[in-house]
Structure formats: C-alpha cells, structure tokens
Amino acid sequence: MNKMKIVNFLFFIFLTTSFSGYAQKTNAVNTVQKNGTYLKGDVVKIPVAIILDWAFIKGEINGVKGRWMFDTGKSEAVTLHSKKVYGIESKITGSGFVGSGQKFEVLEYPVIGQIKIGDNIYDSLKNVMGNNYDFLEQITPEVLGQVGFNFFKGYDMKMDYLRSELTFYKQKEDAENWKDIKKHKNYITSLPYFTRKLDNHPMIKIQHKGIDLLVSFDSGGGKGSVTMEDAHFEKLKNEGDIEDFYDEPGTLYNWHTIKIDELLTIDLYGIDREYDSPAHKSLQITEKNTLTLAYSFFSQYITIWDTKNKVIHVLEKK
User: Fold this and answer.
1) Burial of 290 (0-12, 13-18, 19+ CB in 10 A)
2) Model's pTM, two decimal places?
3) Rounded Cα–Cα distance for residues 317 and 106 (Å)
4) CA angle at 303 for the pair 301 and 308, rounded to the nearest 5°
5) pLDDT in tens, 5-57
6) Euclidean distance between CA atoms 141 and 131, whole angstroms
7) Contacts of 43 (CB under 8 A, 6+ apart)
8) What's the rounded Cα separation, in Å, for the pair 299 and 265?
C-alpha cells in the first residue's frame, strides 16, 4: 500500500481573521473544572502543525515531548498513546478498532502527573484513557495521542489552517459570539447542523443532482470519504462530477461543484470511496450515500463551529 493510500486509510480513526476578545498564552497550570472544561479564558489560541492531512498540537506527557492529533471525531478530551506513558500502571476497560478491523485495548491510567497541550499545562489528571496508537505513527512518530471534541467543551471553535491555528471562544449564557458574523468581509454561509448519537459529529443533508447525501464534518477524517450506491456513483462519474485522483484507477477521487447550499459550492480532492464504514452503526447512520468533509474541505475554508447553537459558519480562507 503506497504512502498516500495509507494516509487516507487512517481517516477511520476514532474525526489574520480577527474577532473581539483577547488571546490567552500562558504557561500557568490549568485546572480541569468540575464540569469537564479544559480551557480557561474568553479566547484561547492554540497553534497547530499540519502533517499530511491532519492537525497536530505540540505537547508533553510527563516530560515526553511530542504532538497530539486534533480529532473532532474523537469525543474524549484527551487520550494517550500507551507507548509514550512510562512507569504508570493501567487497567483494561474495553476495546476499540480502526478501519481495518484491527482491535486494540482501551486503557485507563489512574493519575498522569503532567500533560501539556500547547501552552496549556494540566497536573495530576485522573482517570485518563489511552491505547496503542501505533497506527498513527505512520503519520508522525511523535504522536502522543489525541485531543478530541470535549477538550473545548463550553467553547466555540475556529479552525484556520491558513494561519495554522485553532481559536476557542468561551460561550456565554447572556450573549452570542456570532450574532454579527454575516457582516464579516470573508463570510460565505452558515450551515445549521444536527447530531444523532454523538455531539461531536455534526451532520447536514444536501442533494446533489437529485442524489441525497448525508454530510458530516470530522477534522480527523483524512482528506475525506464517501460511501455511495454504485448506480449513483457511476452516474456522477459519467457526468464528470467525479474523476480519479491518480492517473490510474484507485479508491481516491476528486469531486467537482458539490452544492452544499445556495451560497456554497465546493470542489474536493483525494476523497476516499469506502463501501462500508464501521463507524456508521455507532453514529446511527443508516443512509447509503454519505460524504465526510475533512482536510480537503478545511484546507480551503475557515470554519467556525458554534456548538452552542449547532451551526458551522464558513468563511473564505483569507
């Protein structure tokens, strides 16, 4: 399997624009609040490095330096690569799997002395989950684990791969962060979304040339993926909406002029066609035609995830 195919296969893993406020940058120790909030401050900026198709955040586990994969498709705030945790006993609490069907043991560490995620430092974190992330070492051997959706619980998020940063905005009961977003010079559209079983998997429904598609968003989804009935797929390929990503036929495709809504039509590249996704059952996805928007989409736009109101705002990448 060539490197590009390995990279896109991993999408199965378990997914200066300015605004008012100030950015937190501090080496002070943060305390995880009783409600599970990891961030502190009205606005928190965290730099990321894009490695292949994934965003990574610098960090440490008990002094072991490396990088965290930022994966919104992962619900847990932090999960550890077991190979980067030394001298701490763990207990097996369950099992998980990757797209190949390979299973791994889910571990729980009673206490981790110190974890760093960007400039955020956490001491004595209790009951932290982990597993063997060898399969992520194909992307970078520095991987420490994953930072997931609940890391920014209580905050909205802006993903800006042009500036290689994530920005988190604290949600307020008596105010809305994005009431004036439509006035922003780079504004394109707002996409109200719904969720089913898990809040970290935003979904919308679209129709492309008479074909219904369930669209989801996942920062850990490689370039992106699609499942589609053969007749619909061949129809779009024959009409030129889909073309091979490589010169020779494979499982990766480019997609052209996909109408997301009246204001947004997108092109995608390197989208992996899958015939069965093991994640669909756990996400209560029964639709036969699905499209996961990941790096191919996020690399072309700035997105703001308003998780309080379940809306994703899309801005031009400027």
Assistant:
1) buried
2) 0.88
3) 38
4) 170
5) 444 434 334 332 223 232 333 344 666 766 678 999 999 999 999 999 999 99
6) 15
7) 19, 21, 22, 23, 24, 167, 168, 169, 170
8) 15
